[in-house]
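Table S5 (text form). Sequence records supplied for joint modeling of the two-component complex.
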Amino acid sequence: MTVKPLISAHDLASRAKAQRKQNLELIYNTGMGHIGGDMSATDILITLYFAILNIDPRKPNDPARDRFIMSKGHCSGALYSTLANRGFFPVEDLKTYMQPLSKLNGHPDRNKIPGVETNTGPLGHGLPVAVGTAIGAKLGKQSWRTYVLTGDGELQEGSNWEAAMLAGHRGLDNLTVIIDRNRLQQGDWVEATNNLEPLADKWRAFGWSVSEIDGHDYDALLETFHSLPLEKGKPSCIVAHTHKGNGISFMQDHPGWHHRVPTEAELTEALQELGEKA
Amino acid sequence: MNATLDAKLYDCRDAFAETLERLGEQDERIVVVVNDSVGSSKVGGFKKKFPDRLINVGIAEQNMVGVGAGLANAGFIPFVCAAACFLTGRALEQIKADVAYSNTNVKLVGISSGMAYGALGPTHHSIEDFAWTRAIANLTVIAPADPTETSQVIDMAAKTPGPMFLRLSRMGVPEVHDKGYNFELGKAATLREGKDITLIANGVLVTKALEAASLLAKDGIDARVLNMATVKPIDKAAIIKAARETGAIVTAEEHSTHGGLGSAIAEVVVENAPVQMRILGVPGVFAPTGEAPWLLEHFGLTAQGIYEAAKSLKTHD
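The corresponding structure-token record, covering 595 residues in total, follows.
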């Protein structure tokens, strides 16, 4: 199949900086989107798509491809930017984000966008589908892997735990869940709404092997992804500690930036901040 | 064709199970996903033959449907089998998003639909599933009437890509179709020609409609009988033809009168060839306690009930 692009942590970081700017402008121009979660998920997505996933944008339906499932479908701005930059569709198409008849709906549609594996938007849907693809790979004796990115607030949906239980029971070590642990959900802090802790222990109790890392540290992301499965015979859970609105000081860790759209002045300030950082 | 009713009663789940096992032998992509419903779905034989291809997710319907969608993504043809009430009620959003909207090749098989669970009560009745599923875009909805049709529907489902909801009963039914019957997706089967009124049913009510036609014949009323197994996409042409040629329609289904087969037919009738209709089903209530045959009697879902509804329409002529 395809050769994974060889890319360093430094290259990934500079790519992420450019993509964050692109993502900001996308949301500013569209007037809609989920900027906070886009920013927390960006480094995870970039690492996966540019260094880890065995995928070929020219053959998005290759049966032997790795499956990446974006369970937090509302962060389509980050997903679409990543897919476009990786070559799944022209970057130019990003301008149509959420415009009438655009293929780029607010939540991803696999029948319109190459590289999307399942339609998400309602929360708690990605992991069950990912468990299905992982069972399918085992059944077909295939070596491709399944990755699923969930939000943390999203884990309040019970369907995740149905799926987590089954993955643990079946020892799906070809499956990895990455939790974008930005500690915020739409209305408030996760801990203030419906506490998830002890989160890592919950996954361990369901039969998973767990690693907690800084979800914005490319060295940590690369090292962890390259070490998969974390434990043979168990599904892997990566709790990626992140910051909502990461990279932009006035957005970061601020409950108000779930789906707020920046003003022109805020956009300028955010772009300046991103420009200044290495 | 005019079907002759065999007195022997069959459980359509047996035809379902036999067909699935045969398909399983022919095609390794066929897998079964259940929610601890191996026995009630009668897939024990499939499990014995293909233990790895029977995926029991435990009592977790949302996950069951999601896993089905994932297996389809991985190239398999999953038959996701569970009691119709739990499959559709508990996992409706997964049916909508993971299966229909995602356009995954998942076959949802609702077992023991309608009021088959009888005295277990309304929690176990599935009399809303037509309404729920047919409101979802890109989802084919079929309720076969007898073992022959069940077998052909399962065969067609395995060979036709796309999301489907197949509604099976566990109530005994006679063979209503001839040996030469050929199920066609989206086409009503004319089981009896007639010019005075049309009786349209599916599932376990088809045989009652045929019996009602015999009763009507004794009164000199020549009733057409259509088996509308495919609820979606509905056979508009057959409905319009029936309305124009017979002038009145009675529908009968083991489902709520809100949003099911009768509603689907009425939508076609009012827009194309308005005629008087009677929609027989469960009239928007939770059923009282009673065994399934008693409940059908209670709601007039019998040959006599259909006959009386038809008579009431004809006396209004």
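Note: The first helix of chain A runs from residue 9 to 30.
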